[in-house]
Amino acid sequence: MISVSSLSMRLTSGGRAVDVLTDVSLEVPAGQFVAIAGPSGSGKSTLLGLIAGLDQPTGGRIEVGGVTITGLDEDALARFRGDHVGYVFQSFHLIPTLTALENVAVPLELAGQGDADARAAALLTEVGLAERAHHYPVQLSGGEQQRVAVARALARRPPLLLADEPTGNLDSATGKQIIELLVGANRRLGSTLVLVTHDAALAAHADRVVTLRDGRIVSDE
Amino acid sequence: MSRFVLRLAWRETRGAWRHFGYFFACITLGVSALVGVGSFADNLERTVARSAKSLMGGDVEIRSTQPLPPPSSPDGVAVTRVRELVAMAQAGPALTQLVELKAVEPGYPFYGALVTDPARPLETLIGEGRALVHESLLARLGLRVGDRFRVGQAELTVAGVILKEPDRAVGVFSLGPRVMIAASDLDRTGLVRPGSRVRYRTLFRLPEGADASVFRDRLAEGLPAAQRVTTYTQAQPGLRRFWDQLTMYLGLTGLVALMVGGIGVAVSVSAFVKEKLPTIAIMKALGAGWRPLLAAYLLQTALLGLGGSLAGALLGSLVQPLLAPTLTRLLPIELQLSFSLRAVLGGVAMGVGVTLLYALWPLLQIRRVPPALILRHEVEPRLLGRRPWAAAAPIAAGLAALALWQAGSWKIGALFAGGLAGALLLLALGARGVIALARRVRWRAPAWRQGAANLHRPGSHAGPVLVSLGLAVMLVVSIALLESSLRSQLVDRTPGQAPAFFFIDIQPDQAEPFAALVAGHGADAPAELTPVVRSRLAAVNGAPVTQGEKTRREEAWYLTREYVLTWAARPPGHNTVVAGHWWTPAEAAREPLISVEEEIARQLGVGLGDTLTFDIQGVPVSARVTSLRHVDWRSLASNFFVIFSPGALEGAPTTFIATVRARPEREPALQSAVVGAFPNVTAIPVREVLERVAAVLDQIALAVRLVAAFSIGAGLIVMAGALAITRKQRLYQSVILKALGATRGFVSRVFAVEYALLGAAAGVAGSALAAGLAWAVLRWAFDVPWQWAPGTLAAGVLAATGLALLVGVLGTRRLLGRRPLGVLRSE
Predict the structure, then answer these.
(1) Which of B252, B613, B534, B221 is nearest to B414 (CA)?
(2) Shortest CA distance to B402 belongs to which of B768, B733, B659, B34?
(3) Fewest beta carbons less than 10 Å away: which of A108, B286, B430, B684?
(4) Cis, bond preceding B685 (omega within 30 deg of 0)
(5) Tell me, what's the ipTM?
(6) For chains A and B, what is the number of CB pairs under 8 angstroms?
(7) What residues of B are in contact with residue A78 (Cβ under 8 Å)?
(8) How far apart are CA B199 and CA B62, in angstroms?
(9) Which among A45, A52, A75 has the least Cβ separation from residue B744?
(10) Residues near B289 by Cβ (< 8 Å), separated by ≥ 6?
């Protein structure tokens, strides 16, 4: 499903070049649940973002579902994300202007699906937020916002689910619900799930744990 | 002021330039409009004052419509007389032209220079059948210097061309080119007969150091009321009134730009305060009271307002040469443009005032910031207490006071302030409606849904943007509507609606042959001949109209004007009796009766049963008012303020005026035939005169549009500023959409929809208000029917939409290229 080879990412910050990722290679077969672990600043989130095509690496190659995404232009990347990737962020990133229902409907609308609202309502029911559908993000708790974000990520049944510290801003009980939703999708839909976490307990749920340190893979088990 | 306030004000300004760029630009643009107009008005006033003596041609002048006796000239006082009338010049059987004839005596002009080509002394260029003419006459009659032409019964030779004439108040309202001759030649024309329309002027030059007003008063004592005596300081009152009013309205148009800019200030300050909430909460937690905090931010705002105003004053002074050429074409004198300190000071005061008044409302929020805010992190922090409504009234009063100051007139200032307040209120209500609608409507297309949602997002600036842009659109569209309505009223009449000619000064013995001649030369209908008698108002209810009365009431135009009287057995067409009744033949036979136009009756303070006395060439004629009439002045028929009952004016020197209808292609032949047969009769070509008035209107409209453009500029800056304030939210929204699979095209469509909707809504609201305003102005100020102008209104909506779209696209273009990962991780 995912094939990363010799990936490197160099960022300049404050005039100083920092190698965020150095020569990272990784193969993830379809349907696998992979946890990417490592201390903060190790490059986990950058790796996940690059796999989603949210940025371009400075070196190396990424292939997702048979598509080489490195080298695609901005708009082709956007279409790729819409069609293949569901992404859950640590800080939710819902659109503040839109209600919960409208947020979930966005990917469906972008894909031109006619029954976007009905599908979005069904997804919200799945994550247990049917009665909060018409609330705005500011009116929802953190856990509720993240459940909306998960529903949004699942909206188009993407073959690839990426989650960047999805429980990082939540208490442990709420965090557990979110993980159950993501793992459930991985099992039920057969979606490949890549989850970034520094929570060892959470990583233990995964089929495989890849650990990064200073931008390099230090273990893969 | 405490050190804390000063230092805080400085520190907060130091780092906030980025924030206040748009604030600054708003004030700069508004003030530059005001200073541009103000400098022009000030220079105009100074130039007119400086050239006052040459505008009059003397120190003191007597004006009359009746011959003036040769004046006695006291020691050292020089006297000369001038007669002016309109007449027909004729250069061949088919070449005739209406001209303004002026006959002068030696000595003219006492002040200012008559510039001629060839440049020779005046006495060598006129007299003994020689005439100076304005260049345009040569072109119209195909003449060259040395050629001959006729005026009345006199044959004249063109001796030269007039390049500049000091005391001609023209440009704007002249009926035709100038022909200047010597006094002795005027008598040969045979045009000056009893009842002819001649303006008699006697000019006096006083010795050095003599007081003109003392001389004026002494002179006036011995003169009848019908003769107006003025000093050079009152030269060209009509001209001055025209320019005073024009510059006042231009100034108010400029003030709209500043008021629109003020909304931009409010938006910027409001966003600034919102950003500063944590700082303010921390200060309060550290023990600062709201008063010093408010003082610091007010001081900061005032300084920024001052800076913006000074920049505006500079820009306005530079803009003045742009504005001036559109208007100076209407000026008889050369305008000297220079820096005007008065306009700059006024503009800066206005700019700082508007800044503070608009900023006060958002700044008063400081009072409501709870110190506990530092303990919470809220998206929409809840503030303490209620909005400071008590401050709203003084703020509104302050803005109204600025409008009164700018207008320099209670009535106009109050109308302006009231109109502005009403427009702002309606636009604010309209903005609420649009925002509510954006929330309600479910758009099908995703880009439309996202774009519309941006209008009602928490923290959206759709409201103020709609109000400011709507106000600017209203101003510009209403000007266009007024202009087109007035213009079409003047020019686009279908033939037959307006007469082709007014013929004046037809002598009684010419009336019948005139009618026969016109009938034989292609007139569409028989000439309508109306007898007229020229007169002055001598007394109202027996109380004489005196010189004293006139000086007390400088504007009492209706007391001193010439009254052209007629008589009629039945009320003329386009006249409706609104009070009393029209006389029966029996009533008319008993005593002289008059019917008075309602407006002039109101001005004179007379009603039914009152008596007016007219001086008809020295003979007083009194008559009782038995009816008041409403006159439809737009009819372009010959209408009269005062109509006598038949028989009452018998024996008075009478001439006839005639209105003649003819198809445009027959007009030249008809004019030539009449002038050929009756050299003393003057033909006023109605269409040509109306076209000239329309051309003046065009010039004025150009200047007004130029000033109004500043409002549009300010409205767009408000919009761009609102965009800049929401830049972070927009960037965030755009990268989330992209993370979810949206292309750049989609994201740019979202912003385009948002701004196009804003522009369209502002366009619709502004155009609708403009239609209302134009209708009201046409109805009450001009008494002209409203013309439905869907094209102008649609253009207003389209232009507003297009401009808003442009601002939106330019303002968000740079956001589109940003890659999502970096932005999302920093959030």
Answers:
(1) B252
(2) B34
(3) B286
(4) no
(5) 0.85
(6) 93
(7) 738, 741-744, 746
(8) 10
(9) A75
(10) none
**Closest residue in chain A to residue B448, using alpha carbons only:** A109
By the 8 A CB rule, do B32 and B348 touch? no
Domains of chain A listed by start with CATH number: 2-220 (3.40.50.300)
A31 at the B interface (CB within 8 A)? no
Using a CB-CB cut-off of 8 Å, the residues of chain A touching B377 are none
| Coil/strand/helix, residue B145 | coil
Q: What are phi and psi of B288, to 5 degrees?
A: -80, 135
Sign, CA dihedral B399-B403-B409-B412, equals negative
pTM of the model: 0.79
The secondary structure of B576-615, three-state, reads: EEEEECCCCHHHHHHCCEEEEEHHHHHHHCCCCCCEEEEE
CB–CB contact B379 A96 (8 Å): yes
Neighbours of B118 (CB within 10 A): 10
The count of other CB atoms within 10 Å of the CB of residue B46 is 15
| A52 near B CB under 8 A | yes
**β-bridge partners, B620:** B615
In DSSP notation, B191-236 reads: ---TT--EEEEEEEEPPTT--HHHHHHHHHHTS-TTSEEEEGGG-S
- Do the Cβ atoms of B261 and B358 come closer than 8 Å? no
Question: How far are the Cα atoms of A118, A133, A201, B266 from residue A114, in angstroms, in the given order?
Answer: 9, 19, 41, 43
Q: With CB atoms and an 8 Å threshold, state whether A79 touches B741.
A: yes
Q: How far apart are CA B505 and CA B638, in angstroms?
A: 14
Q: Residue written as tokens 């366009």?
A: B763
Q: Is the Cβ–Cβ distance between B104 and B110 less than 8 Å?
A: no
The answer to whether the Cβ–Cβ distance between A106 and B820 falls below 8 Å is no
Residue with tokens 């009980």: A173
Conformational region of residue B85, where left means phi above 0, alpha means psi within -120 to 50, and beta covers everything else: beta
Is residue A96 within 8 Å of residue B729, measured between CB atoms? yes
Q: Which residues pair with A195 in a beta bridge?
A: A35, A163
**Closest residue of chain B to A96, computed from CA coordinates:** B457
Lowest mean pLDDT among B37-46, B543-552, B805-814: B543-552
In A, which residues are within 8 Å of B450 by CB distance? 95, 97-98, 106
The nearest CA of chain A is from the CA of B815 a distance in Å of: 13
CB-CB under 8 Å, B458 with A96: yes
Tokens representing B103? Answer: 């006959």
Which regions in chain A score pLDDT beneath 70? none
Per domain, the residue ranges of chain B are 1-53+243-408, 58-234, 445-491+697-827, 526-660
Q: Taking a C-beta distance cutoff of 8 angstroms, is the pair B771, B793 a contact? A: yes
Q: Residue B333 pLDDT more than 80?
A: no
> Contact at 8 Å (CB) between A57 and A9?
yes
CB B642 within 8 A of CB B612: yes
Q: Which amino acid is at B42?
A: D
Q: B492 phi and psi, to 5 degrees?
A: -85, 40
Q: Which of A110, A140, A148, A156 best tests the B interface by mutation, with the highest count of B CBs <10 A? A: A110
Question: For residue A152, which residues of chain B lie inside 8 Å, CB to CB?
Answer: 740
Inter-chain residue contact A93 with B736, CB threshold 8 Å: yes
Q: What is the model's pLDDT at position B555? A: 44
A89 and B CB contact within 8 Å: yes
Structure tokens at B432: 């609420």
By residue count, chain A amounts to 221
Q: Where are the alpha helices (DSSP H) in B441-461?
A: 446-455
* A110/B746 CB distance under 8 A: yes
